[in-house]
Structure formats: C-alpha cells, structure tokens
Amino acid sequence: MKFQYYNPIRFHFGTDAFDQIPELCEGHKVMLVYGEGSIKENGVYDRITTLLKEHGIPYVDYGGQTGAEYQGILDGIALVKKEKIDAIVEIGGASAMDTGKAIAFGAVHENLEDYIEGKKVSDNCHLFNVIIPTYPSTGSEANGVCDIMEYKGGGAELFGAWPDYCLMDPSATSSLDKKSTTYSALVCFIQTSAWYIGNHQNDIAKGFAKTVLQVLLDSLDRLLKNPEDQRARENIMWASCVNTMGVFRSGVDQFYPWTLFSVGYIPRVAHQVSYREALVIAYLSWLKGISKYHMSDICTLFTEVFGISTALDDESIVDEGCARLKKLMEEGEIPVSLSAYGSCPTKEYIAGALNPEDFGEFTQDEMYEMIAKCYA
Length: 376
Known about the structure:
This protein is α/β, with parallel strands linked by helices.
C-alpha cells in the first residue's frame, strides 16, 4: 500500500454556503459560468447575483455551457481577457464546472493545447475559482480534472485545473426532477464503484467507498419515494464530492474498471449522448462483460453493497444485481437503451475512436458487443 494524497480545495457545506460569496469575491471582477438556465428558474442565479450586486462586485455572464466543448472554453478565455476578469464562478453541473475550471486555467497559460496533450505539466496556476454545484454527480467540483469535448474531433482531458473553493447548498438541488435526481445518484454510484472493485490494498479506502455506495442507494430510494427528503439530498451532494476528491484512490491496484468509460465514450462522440446517459446505460452492459474476467469483484459489489444472497451461483448474482440496477433506472424514469439515438457505431469506428489501452482485457469484438447492447 503506497500512495500520496492531496486536495487543495476548501469546501463549505450547508444552507448558508452561499453567504461566503461576497467575502470570497470581494475585489474581483467575476465571470459566472453556467448551463442552459435552470439556475434562473430555480432561483439560484438570483440568490448569487443579488449577493454580488449588494456588495458592489461586478460580474459578466457566460451561460449556455452545456457540453464543456473546447471552442466554448476558448471563447470564454477570450471574454476573460477582453473584460479583464480575474475570478471565475461556475454554477451547475459537470459541463459548466469543467468549462469554468478550464477557462480559469487557460486564461493564465499561453498554449492550453500543450497541457491538454500532456506536453506540459500543470503548475496549478489559475484565476481565482469558486465552484457552486447544483447538479451533483460527477464530482468535478472536488478535483482538478476537466473533461473536454469536441477537441480535434474527439474528447480530451485537462489535468491540474483545481478550483479554490466549493460552496455546497443542498437546497439548490431541490428543483431536480425524478429523472435528474436518479441520474445524479447513479452516476456518483457508478464512479464510486470503480474505486471499490479496483481496490484490494487499502481496507479503509475500500470501506469508505462501500459506505458511500450503500448511502447512495438508500438516499436514491428515499428520494424516489419523497423528493423533499433533505437528508437524502445532502447525502448525494456530499457523496459527489467525496467520490473524486482522492480518498478512494489510495491503494487502488486494479485499473480494469476504467474500461467502463471506454464503453460510455463511444456514444458520446458518435451521437453526442450526454455523459450521464451514456455512462448509466453502459454500466449495465459492462458489468456483464467484465464479469467474464473479474467475476469475484463484481459478485462482491452485488453481495456486499446490494445485499444479494451469496447462496446464489456467480452468474445468478450478476444477473440479479443488474436487474436491480435496471429497476432503479426504470423507477427513476431514465432510459435503459440508446436506441433513440440510432444504431451502434461500426467496429471500425470504435477501433478508430479508442486507443489500444482503452480496450483493457477486452477484444475488439467484445468491446463492440458491449457497446451494441447499449443500443439494443
């Protein structure tokens, strides 16, 4: 067991979290980065801008950031320089957060491409950056990674783009409908499960992950029955942070779980499927596929976290576990197939879109079969 742990973000959690905004942003000119505008419908935008206005803090809007696309990031950097902005505040879900983090980083570096492509290593410099999550799931608010789309025809990642503060008010998620709430919990669950099944070295980190997985399932069940359950919303918001802030990474010795993201990546670049929809549907297909190589780990996930009986044979445990996940998806009114987007891309397309290491233990035929099942 050998690892290093570091997270430079300061987290403020609670219904008074937004009260930190005037003090944090004092003396700055702020860019507000957000998505399609749900924050205006649920009152979050008004709460934040009222605080800025009351304290004489100038701000510029940069809305419509729904895909963390590279051109949108470049346009944001240009606006920052034009308006002489020196602080970024991201409000919303993963796309807004990744866009804002990349803008804050890119605004102080000459060639962003060099950092995306790994030619240069992050020096952790960036504009002052505050994240306000309103759609917790991916944990982008708790790490330094930006998932960038439409970069030279595909997807890419920028590492080392950390925010400074994360302000979390669970009441900001109360307007999420059943579908969005289900996606929120399941995306967080799926990402955390990758740390859980891939860790055979650190009992504490694995135990933390198990607790988060169990709490997520319980909280989602409670919210599907009662959307006003505040404690359940608090649990999901904090779980989103914890799942990527690095605690679970300590002691991870198996990296095969990340082939899941290869399965989910293809629909995203081929048909512009959202990260959450692609990942949740890919998970069901991937669990069946990966159990061929790591049956013990997948059975442990279902017996230890879901409580499925160990008296069943291994294949029955996996079948029962996937059936329960599918039932959760159906109860949350989210699709279990990508057929609405068209047909599965060809084997040739998949081979060209993925690097050889992205296949892990899977053959090209196996990868194609898993992706094809997502469209069934």
